[in-house]
Automatic annotation (TrEMBL):
Compositionally biased region (Polar residues): 16-25
Keyword check for Zinc: no
Official protein name in the record: Patellin-5-like
Keyword Cytoplasm: yes
Organismal lineage: Eukaryota, Viridiplantae, Streptophyta, Embryophyta, Tracheophyta
Keywords: Cell cycle, Cell division, Cytoplasm, Lipid-binding, Membrane, Transport
Amino acid sequence: MAEQLVLEVPEAEETANASLPSPENTQDKAPLPAPPQAEAASHLPENETKSLQELKHLLRRALLLHTLSISTPPPPPPQDSHNTQTIAMTLLEDVDGAKTLEAIEETIVPRAEEASVFGVKLLEDERSDVVLLKFLRARDFKPKDAFAMLDSTLRWRKEFGVDNEEEEAESDEFERAVFMRGRSKEGHPVCYNVYCEFRDGDEEKRRRFLRWRVRFMEKSVRELDFRHGGVSTIVQVNDLKNSPGPNRWELIQALQLFQDNYPEFVAKQIFINVPWWYLALNKMMSPFLTQRIKSKFVVAGPSKSTQALFKYISAEETPAQYGGLSKEGAFEAADSVTEILVKPSSNHIVEFPVSKGCVVSWEARVVGWEVSYGAEFVPRDEDGYTIIIEKKRRIGGKEEQVVCSSYKVCDDGKLLLTFDNPTSKKKMLLYRFKTKLSG
């Protein structure tokens, strides 16, 4: 009866894991066994979990066989090697009682490649399931299509030099064209794209912008949370006010590039200050965009842009130039904003109680203004005098300014802000207060 004597072999663990034959003989062999289901995917429906496991199998096989578009051929085996390795010795006993050792050999399989995307190692990182699910969702959970998209993205990143740390230093040339500011009501980071900055751009400037925009996107993506349950998408706001027009391709090119190589990274794509020619641009873009992408679009003309933003982004997080109160000053995003509708042909008075010895600060704005504004302090003592802090004045619609002011309180009383709306339209009023003890 034969006994098996297992001998220790260097790198045995790696060899034991290499269960596929060499690349030249394995293109259509039996598939690898499926790995245990990751905890991050346990919340998925059964069909989506199956698609995720199939995609991981395709990726694992491609990494083992070096068949990705970015793969480099595995190193050839040594010339004196037979491409095998002894992994065990079997002790045999013949009929005469003589004992011999028989070597058991196994084909050596090249070490699997590693691949990363968006700063996440594929198959080796707990966050990789979230990344792979983005490609699956972009391709309706068809594993082969998702794998092809992932492979194409890896190839584009290599050709574009996305992960090249020696890329030219970031320039502030386009910081007014694209910037991050605050978060949406659902916690997504918000990116603003201002296309009027390209009215005078030439071909070279557009080339520089596209490279810069990719670097900016990559930097933004690295700050997302790819753990299960984390925020891994961005709200994109596209300001088309005074933008070049439908015959310029910056917008189309950027949207197409990000759709192809950053799938499912957009929670909402909001277009504001949309001009008359947008219908023509939309017709040009439509064939390049999937239905899933188009379902995330929100479009608003100049008169409805602020309201459209407020539906997804709070006033305290919306930049002042877009109707909100977010700007550098005494207030922070954590300081909540009150929103009130001022009826047509009416006035609205905001009262804020204050105490002696404090300094009260306030910010206020009316979307579209065409409203008169004034501020005064009324003491609690009936014998005291009302103090005019800001004389009532009319603020025009084109000014779109945020009123920022403060007052050192000398007596207990209340601050009154008065807004007179003489127009026939309702006006949205935004305001907030903050007090601190005077130094």
